[in-house]
Amino acid sequence: MYAKPLSLDETLAVTPVPRKSRVAPAPLRKTGPFLHQEDHARVVRFDAGDGTRRSFTVLATPGRSSEPRSARGSIAVLDNDSGEIVVEGHVAGGSRKVAVAEQVELVERIAGMGWDDFRTFCQESPGFRALSEKSIDNRDDFLRSFDGVSDYSFPRRTREGMIRDIMSHGCSPCRDGKMRFSWDIRMNFVWDRSGRVQDGEDLCPSQDARWREALEEDRTLYRRACETALADYVDAPFRVLDDDDMLCDLEVIGVQGGWVILNSIGGKPIAAPTPGAMRQLLEGSCDVTVRNLWTALRTLDVDFSRKNRTFEMQWALNGLRAELEAEWLEELDPELMF
To answer: What is the pLDDT of residues 271-318, one digit of tens each?
Structure first.
């Protein structure tokens, strides 16, 4: 059994309302440790005056995902650059009796503040935890060049922020007793298996039924498609963003090959027996190693997303079906082919 990777922004199911209620509760999202409704959070950015840009998330929350939820909730502020909690448990008006609507209104007021007022609000809040005066961006110029121009996202992060992100990534226990970063690559959801893709090989509509039957009866077709879709990642070390320093050794594991794990990056093994040991490994690594691992995880999160897995599998099935049709159609009268 392999643990399912979790995400900081994973949508969490809400306990169903009683049958007498006619309104289903909105699903909650999770940002950092806090739950919140999607429209109860704002990302705010400031020019901190020292030549740096700062980014924070302000949200109205019923509490942490690991704790009982409050009916009215409170305000939390997170530093997006470092991943640190700046404010937790701030209640509008200083009273626990304030309605949720007023908490949300306070979120909007905070989002409209300038840097000085925002900093003062945080530092004077009863729930103030910490606010770094200066954020040191651990990205390099290469990663900054992706801002807004790519499917890959590499937001501003301090070294500690990168470590926090890395530690929140899903891991799978392996046979040697160590945990490795992993991705769920199962195709256990609805997707188009017809083999038809835009700009792909031309396929014959008359062979649709035969193709569906072949997929159901010959499981090797699906396995071959999986091997084709994953070939660039596992047949040889995968070079993240074409960078030799981010050469990743990836491996498919699981009874039916449902997971991909990261064994090493840049020739350095990335595995540990416990989360604490993994954090110790990261904290003992240099800034470049932390940055490269953070970059690789974010890149592969996109590459192994459902959207991209589906795209690669559909192209693989397109090629397989074209090969089979070439064999099938030799058996048919040419006039019946289309």
So the answer is: 999 999 999 999 999 999 999 999 999 999 999 999 999 999 999 999
Span of 38-42, 92-96, 115-119, 137-141 with lowest mean pLDDT: 92-96
C-alpha to C-alpha distance for 232 and 77, rounded to whole angstroms: 41
Give, in order, the Cα–Cα distances in Å from 250 to each of 20, 98, 182, 244, 281.
51, 51, 9, 15, 19
Give the global pTM: 0.64
Q: Where are the beta strands (DSSP E) in the chain?
A: 28-31, 34-37, 41-47, 53-61, 63-64, 74-79, 85-90, 171-173, 179-184, 238-239, 247-253, 259-265, 268-269
Which distant-in-sequence residues (6+ apart) come within 8 Å of 11 by Cβ? 27, 28, 29, 30
For the chain, how many helices (H) and strands (E)?
Answer: 9, 13
C-alpha span between 101 and 280 (Å, rounded): 42
- Tell me if 191 sits within 8 A of 310, measured CB to CB: yes
Query: What would the two tokens of residue 249 be?
Result: 């050794």
Of 296, 282, 246, nearest in space to 161 by CA: 282
- The H-or-E segment that residue 217 falls in is helix 208-217
In the three-class reduction of DSSP (H, G, I as helix; E, B as strand; rest coil), residue 306 is classed as helix
Q: Which two tokens stand for residue 248?
A: 């990743």
